[in-house]
Amino acid sequence: MSKKNYTGIVYSTNPDHEYQSDNEPEADTLAPQQQQLKVWLDRRGGGKVMTAVRGFVGTEADLAELGKALKNTCGTGGTVKDGEIQIQGDHRDKILTYLTGKKYGAKKAGG
């Protein structure tokens, strides 16, 4: 059952009132050749290093599936949130090799 997100309106006396939702439909997942992924190296608090993959265009389920494959390839933990894949440690080279092997458009980004 889907949960509707009604924001701001508790009650309306207008019989023609229509609730407005901020939910946008998910974009269709582009083919790997059309993706323009960027692989970043980020430093988190405490001196921890994290590899981030950004720029994925598609559904959350497909992003999570790619994130799981990257975590398995690197043999480490990570997460998928806010539209990006975060992998613990510096695994840019492994990730780039995996993505280019699967025909994704990917390159290193950042400093």
From TrEMBL:
Species per Swiss-Prot/TrEMBL record: Fibrella aquatilis
Keyword Protein biosynthesis assigned: yes
Residues covered by region (Disordered): 1-30
GO function term, MF aspect, one: translation initiation factor activity
Name used for this protein in its record: Translation initiation factor
Domain SUI1: 37-103
Pfam family, one: SUI1
Keyword terms: Initiation factor, Protein biosynthesis, Translation regulation
Tagged with keyword Protein biosynthesis: yes
Entry-linked Gene3D superfamilies: SUI1-like domain (3.30.780.10)
One of the GO BP terms on file: translation reinitiation
Similarity field: Belongs to the SUI1 family.
InterPro entries found in the cross-reference section: DENR/SUI1_TIF, SUI1, SUI1_arc_bac, SUI1_dom_sf
